[in-house]
Write a sequence for this structure.
């Protein structure tokens, strides 16, 4: 059984979108409300933090070495060396109470990102978008309260996605050459006790690893939605796993937790890691 340890007591409101930058041997993750992207050097423990102009829903690696970043209603390119932000897309036509959320570079070289409703209770007003290097942003699916859990099978031919509020994990057949999606199906529906699906990662065997913040765990599903493993997490509120060499890193959240919970678990909002329970599949790079 993998045992998680705290590696950065970052205390983010919502730490999210861990991304393994293998070329630079660093693990990147964002603090959504803090408008930051953090970088941890896995070899020497060095840390760096970059400030962005708006909330950071998610981000991905670019072919150019930059990052593609989902801000509140648009995607930008960010150069970590010069700290330069370059506009990429116009603002998406979303309700003002929505923001962009989970996103990943896909095997098609595009950046896929979904939106979420910030009302309480959340409404199914969000959508899933495909962003290309020329700045086009195309709506591909809609009707989500919290778009989340993007991941692709190792061969790039199945795309997975979740809605955290309706607690479903869905899949499509995917064309890695064109980004076309067909044959939609729901592969899992989860309860609070099982762990509502949040951010996700894929292993080389095609299994889908999903953070379950409502149950304090990381769930592993087969390609058809069978629950294969459940890893207990040391604090409530894991948000997204990421395979990085010999380790699995997982972010967590503090936002919305009671004073009693924060007293019991003061490292909520931190970055944790464990020995990798499987070998991670390669992740996509944005073809800028």
């Amino acid at each position: 059984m993998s045992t998680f340890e705290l590696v950065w007591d970052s205390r983010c409101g919502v730490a999210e979108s861990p991304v393994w930058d293998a070329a630079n041997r660093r693990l990147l993750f964002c603090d959504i409300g803090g408008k930051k992207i953090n970088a941890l050097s896995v070899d020497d423990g060095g840390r760096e933090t970059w400030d962005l102009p708006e909330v950071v829903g998610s981000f991905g690696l670019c072919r150019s070495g930059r990052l593609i970043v989902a801000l509140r209603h648009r995607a930008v390119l960010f150069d970590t060396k010069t700290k330069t932000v370059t506009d990429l897309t116009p603002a998406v036509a979303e309700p003002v109470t929505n923001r962009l959320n989970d996103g990943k570079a896909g095997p098609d070289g595009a950046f896929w990102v979904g939106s979420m409703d910030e009302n309480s209770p959340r409404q199914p007003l969000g959508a899933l978008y495909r962003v290309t290097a020329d700045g086009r942003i195309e709506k591909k699916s809609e009707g989500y309260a919290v778009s989340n859990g993007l991941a692709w099978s190792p061969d790039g031919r199945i795309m997975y996605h979740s809605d955290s509020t309706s607690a479903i994990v869905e899949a499509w057949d995917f064309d890695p050459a064109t980004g076309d999606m067909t044959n939609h199906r729901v592969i899992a529906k989860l309860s609070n006790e099982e762990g509502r699906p949040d951010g996700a990662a894929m292993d080389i065997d095609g299994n889908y690893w999903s953070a379950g913040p409502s149950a304090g765990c990381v769930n592993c599903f087969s390609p058809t939605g069978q629950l294969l493993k459940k890893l207990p997490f040391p604090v409530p509120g894991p948000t997204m796993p990421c395979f990085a060499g010999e380790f699995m890193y997982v972010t967590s959240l503090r936002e919305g937790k009671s004073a009693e919970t924060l007293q019991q678990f003061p490292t909520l909002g931190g970055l944790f890691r464990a020995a990798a329970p499987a070998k991670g599949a390669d992740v996509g790079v944005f073809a800028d």
Summary: The chain is about 0% helix and 50% strand. The chain has a mean pLDDT of 96.
